[in-house]
Amino acid sequence: MPQQRSSQPHRALHPLRRRFAPLLALLLLALPDSAFATLQAISLDGDFADWSSMEPAAIDPRGDGEPIDFGRLWVANDQDWLYLRFECGARVEPDAGQDLRLWIDTDNDPATGKKHEGLGAELVWEFGKRTGTFYTPRPVTLDPADLHLRIGPTHGSDQFEVALRRDRRPARDLPLFPGPTVRILLSSGRLGDQVPDRPGGLLYTFAPGTIPIAPIDFTRATPGVVRLAGYNIQHDGLFKKKEAPRQEALQRILRAINADIWILNEVWNHRAEAVAKRFEQLLPSPPGGAWHAVRRDRGNVIVSRFPIKQSWAILPQHRLSAALIDLGPEREQDLLVVANHWRCCKAEDERRKEAQALVAWLADANTPGGTLTLPAATPIVLGGDLNLVGSGAPLRTLLGGEINAVPAPDRGDPTPSNRRLLSLLVSRHSDARMGYTWRKESARYYPGVLDYILYTSDRVTVAKHFILDTRTMSPARLTITGLRRNDTVLASDHDPRVVDLLFQPR
Ligand SMILES: [Ca+2]
Ligand SMILES: [Ca+2]
Ligand SMILES: [Ca+2]
Predict the structure, then answer these.
(1) Ligand 3 centroid to 136 CA: how many Å?
(2) Would you call 442 helix, strand, or coil by DSSP?
(3) How far apart are CA 384 and CA 300, in angstroms?
């Protein structure tokens, strides 16, 4: 007679987990199966400062799993979203190359759903495959759009924040979250780690209440700011004259933002002069003013209400260029604007090359000699589509390390006190606690931050900043700002980023 087999596959224990098992059992006995409930304003932007005041809901030991070795897990909610943050002990890419799974028993009933570690999970999400299953009880395959699943960052990281929309009905009009209490578990493959490391996962009760989202209004922070916007206009979007609704949407967006300096990506087939002329049509200059534009690579155009003094191509055959902008007699210094549109998708090696070339070029600009030398501590702002999926190493190149330790010309060798570093600007949508600048349903990548702004904080102060996405604006706010719900989608597959900059007066 054949041996009876359990319907639930046996989970093989990692040797390290086996070693920790007795200690874990003791720890778990001491822990009550208490329900956590935390109402918290989380911004889904790949930055974790918004979690810093919270205690973790579960702590898994280090060294009991590989390659993913879970550490702490936090859970929170607001009126619209369930949020998770977790540490995975190793840098992994959210959309590939790992077996990270989220199990949620969404009705807190072990008798329904997919049986796993004491849960009856209605939802199983496989991050690396960007797909999941909803057990209704019939299994239904889901994609990220079915859940409005968001994850950040969307490049390699050793921790992530995830959001799931609470009001989703992923299949057969059944609610994703039918009740107030759920059980949550994260796992990593057959031999991997899990958190919490106990049957039944983490019991979480949605905290009642509402945290209003204060809209960021589009008026300038103060009259003295310089407003800069970065915008990938998708395939020469400004010039698709036959696409009237798109042109109207673009015009409403340009007028709502009303920036002084624009970093445009994907101006493939038009000269800088044509862009300046088009800007005069869409966003006319005041009397006596004029739009200036420069194009020094194959797709980026820098457009400015201020005169452009000089410009450079930074890396031949790549979309990387810079312009020195004269901010007028009332401001002490010129502004160096760097336009970026890094190589897409799998071209990680090319993005590394672009990051290294940019840092080297900035080091040259900040140091006497070489191909160019800027006046000491010239303010620098970088913007554009960095296409940062993959490892995230190119961003780390930009943000730190000796390669970016540039001495001010009059201050000798770099020391920690006189390094010029680039600061990363983390923004949210004007009307939502969301940080993505690109979102295409059912695409190969999760919605994420592809469009960046970085700046030298020693001579520049950021006075206001936001991402414009009309999909996350309320009807009332659309009316106030002169926009329509589908404008950002009609105009481009990317959202514009906006920043108000303050400079030292003369
Ligand atoms: Ca965040
Ligand atoms: Ca662990
Ligand atoms: Ca269940």
Answers:
(1) 10
(2) coil
(3) 9
**pLDDT score, position 30:** 45
Q: What is the band of 338 on the pLDDT scale with cuts at 50, 70, 90? A: very high
Distance of CA 23 to the CA centre of its chain: 38
Which bound ligand lies closest to the C-alpha atom of 73? 2
Residue 346, classified by CB atoms within 10 Å of its CB into exposed (0-12), middle (13-18) or buried (19+), is exposed
Pick from 230, 128, 171: nearest CA to 445: 128
Nearest CA to 383 out of 305, 474, 498 is that of 498
Confidence label for 371 from pLDDT (cuts 50, 70 and 90):
confident
Please say whether the beta carbons of 453 and 500 come within 8 A. Answer: no
| Model confidence, pTM | 0.92
> What's the Cα-to-Cα distance from 211 to each of 41, 73, 177, 467, 495, rounded to whole Å?
7, 22, 19, 20, 25
Residue 148 CA to ligand 1 center (angstroms) comes to: 16
pLDDT for residue 363: 86
Domains contained in the chain, CATH given: 15-205 (2.60.40), 226-503 (3.60.10.10)
Proximal ligand: closest to the CA of 426? 1
The confidence band for 8, taking pLDDT boundaries of 50, 70 and 90, is very low
Determine the distance separating the centroid of ligand 1 and the alpha carbon of 149, expressed in angstroms.
14
416 CB burial (10 A radius; 0-12, 13-18, 19+): exposed
Ligand 3 centre distance from Cα of residue 181 (Å): 11
CA of 183 to the centre of ligand 3 (A): 9
Q: Quick check: 66 and 177 in contact, CB under 8 A?
A: no
Q: Which amino acid is at 33?
A: D
Task: Using pLDDT thresholds of 50, 70 and 90, give the confidence band for residue 343.
Answer: very high
Q: Which residues contact 160 (CB under 8 A, 6 or more apart)?
A: 46, 85, 86, 88, 94, 151, 152, 153
Give 221 Cα–ligand 3 centroid separation in angstroms.
49
Q: How far is the CA of 148 from the centre of ligand 3 (A)?
A: 21
Nearest ligand, measured from the Cα of 123: 3
How far CA 346 is from CA of 294, 342, 391, 416, 492, in Å, comes to 29, 11, 10, 35, 22
Ligand nearest to the CA of 17: 2
* CA 166 to ligand 1 center in whole angstroms: 18
DSSP letter (8 states) at residue 331: B
